[in-house]
Amino acid sequence: xxxxxxxxxxxxxxxxxxxxxxxxxxxxxxxxxxxxxxxxxxxxxxxxxxxxxxxxxxxxxxxxxxxxxxxxxxxxxxxxxxxxxxxxxxxxxxxxxxxxxxxxxxxxxxxxxxxxxxxxxxxxxxxxxxxxxxxxxxxxxxxxxxxxxxxxxxxxxxxxxxxxxxxxxxxxxxxxxxxxxxxxxxxxxxxxxxxxxxxxxxxxxxxxxxxxxxxxxxxxxx
Length: 222
Prior knowledge:
The chain has helices spanning 3-19, 32-36, 43-47, and strands at residues 51-55, 67-73, 86-93, 99-104, 109-126, 132-133, 136-141, 144-149, 152-156, 161-164, 168-186, 194-196. The mean pLDDT is 96. The protein is 12% helix and 40% strand. The longest helix is centred in the first third of the chain and has 17 residues, at 3-19. Strands 1, 2, 3, 4, 5, 6, 7, 8, 9, 10, 11 and 12 form a twelve-stranded antiparallel beta sheet that branches. The chain has one domain: Jelly Rolls. The protein is built from three helices and twelve strands. By secondary structure, it is mainly beta. β5 and β6 (132-133) form a beta hairpin.
């Protein structure tokens, strides 16, 4: 991805958050120059990869296969002394922009449609070989036990939510416009806890054709 494209998506996201009155922490808007001045008081942000996150999953085609994320809070899965055992993200899925099929070995998460278009997800339970099973299983949709089978498609309107336990494969996209998607979960460990059905990249390779407006969560100075 080009840095100029990332800058454009950041500006579009800020406008989208504003439209739906979703406020971000003040450090979301710090410039790269401001980050250079920050010390150990910001270690939690750096260590736990909080902040802006844009991925095309290595596809080279963000509009078709990608996701825009902002991690608001997170703990450290590998630190036994970390008291923060939860995480929260806000995401934007563009219309028909697909997040590839994946599950988490450890993390359980609630995904909430916070506004905009429909959140559409296709789900399967992983079999013993981590393949896609067509068996029936139960998921919680807004706290209501709902029986589904592998490959079912579930549509969530704004305000509705679904819980994904570990080993539940899911892919998702938005319809009828972009969707503002909330995630409330156990601690998030993107480096080790994402099992994609097909091998993909996580962070995009960036062509630096313009200065960054904001740093991404994997770009903070140490």
